[in-house]
Amino acid sequence: MNVSREDILKVASLSKLELAEAEFEVVASKFRNVLAFVEQLNEVDTTGVEEMAHPVDVHTVTRSDTLQESLDHDVALSNAPKSDGEFFLVPPVLG
Amino acid sequence: MQLEILSAVQLGAMIAKREVSCREVSKYFLDRVHQFDSIVSAMVNVFDEATVMEQADQVDSRILGGEKLSPLAGLPITIKDVLCLEGLPTTCSSKMLQNFRPPYNATSVQRLIDAGMIVLGKTNMDEFAMGSSTENSAFFPSRNPWALDRTPGGSSGGSAVTVAAGMSPLSIGSDTGGSVRQPAAFCGVCGLKPTYGLVSRFGLIAFASSLDQVGPFAHHVEDLAAVLQVIAGHDPRDSTSLNVAIPDLTSGLNAPLKGLRVGVVREHQDHPALDPEISKAVQATQKLLQSLGATIEEVHLPNSRHSVATYYVIAPCEASSNLARYEAAHYGYRARMTTEASSKSSTSGRNPLEEMMVVSRSQGLGEEVKRRIMLGTFALSAGYSDAYYKQALKVRRLIANDYQQAFQKVDVLLGPAFPTPAFRLGEKIDDPVQMYLGDQFTVEANLAGIPAMSLPAGFTRDGLPLAIQLQAPQLQEARLLNVGHQLQRAGLFEPKIAGLV
User: Fold this and answer.
1) What is the ipTM of this complex?
2) Does A76 sit within 8 Å of B103, measured CB to CB?
3) Best exposed site among A42, A90, B118, B403 by fewest CB in 10 Å?
4) Which domains does chain B carry?
């Protein structure tokens, strides 16, 4: 398929990414090449074939709902880019 | 005494018998890391000598106290920087995680430490394990110790280099589409990707969750078996970890191969990109197996030609979901928001939080990673997921079915690990499709979830390592290791350290 500049901008936005003008053409051209390459899959007749999302049979794993040790508060916050010692701090959601 | 050429199992036995101390062995390899890493750039972070010696002394005193430890106790190991390890940053060779210090150890890492192994440090990789050359590291490319102008392969390039150059007798990496086997092949060492789910993924930073698996590097097949024996096994903290009994992987290494049925994949041997010297190495391995009593059969994997395309839809789709977690709120790189950037939020229509996330992700992630996230997002987006993602999952089923049929006729498959010997740094980095096509022979094992191993098979006329690959049905690691060990004993390869002096 033909992928327009707008398509690529939209997919970047959905991915929470932004492409600088200087890198846009390089990324866009590689993106189009890879997409054109994987389009060969359309040639394969997959009528009646079940999708295979996982290499082994997966079953939902449950455990009993009992109290277990978890990370200490300060350890959980130790990699935070910004924290007040109690919470993760982020810029306002409402601008 | 040259310790780097001994098998880890042999060296472990010497430590256990106190012929050599863990301190001496650890110092020996740490010195080699210091001596050679400036040449090959294999390590992202190395523990300081005092920390390594402290760990070593603890093991020595346990041995002195008569404690019965694992056969690998006291042996140094390096760990790919995709596996969480306390005490050093775990970076995934990404600016995004450059300063991330994991608050826990990955289960596989913890098991190695519990076995008394000495971690030397973390190895360089393609950012978030996306690549086949270690050139996508955000920090620096690693170099192939056999030819410094060539890549060591990837994504676990640094791990393969530390073993090839004798900087560590052992390493562990991760393999999502060949990331253990291909660098092992490029660097002339052994590499194993186990059955999906055999080794816990807890603490393995996720790239593509239905494909990722942890696997070892070593010079000797018996060492792969010994490491896998330690790291394999059910982990309640990984819901996809297989709850199966782990067989003794070392006791069957010496079983004779008489009657073994070996399949050679026609589609792989006839592949137009296959280097003639590698094709010859596969044929020579075939003859060696016959001389050991195996029979050879030709098998077909008719959907093999679509495996790379299938992989490069599924892996980016899973990556786009997994890498959504890098939102600069809880950990990882956060961009410094200048007034210009925050005022931009009004023009972009994004709120300040979202703006911070977008700018941080865009600055913190490299081009290959961003492009794969975008490709996966595209292939999963409304209107396209049937044509791309779901179609790829159906073709994946066809590929897995081909393997199932092949394994009704044969016990193992023999073929190439990679179409060519190590390529040059810079040779393919600007052409992703060319880079991806190299993964032809390795991605299939990940798609089908089966174990696969690459083994050295001599050298090209130019002195570059050659390799072959063996694949087996799910959970048949013991068979794979048996075949590999017998091939090594029969002379398929002699473990060799790349000379860097």
Assistant:
1) 0.96
2) yes
3) A42
4) 3-256+453-489 (3.90.1300.10), 327-364 (no CATH)
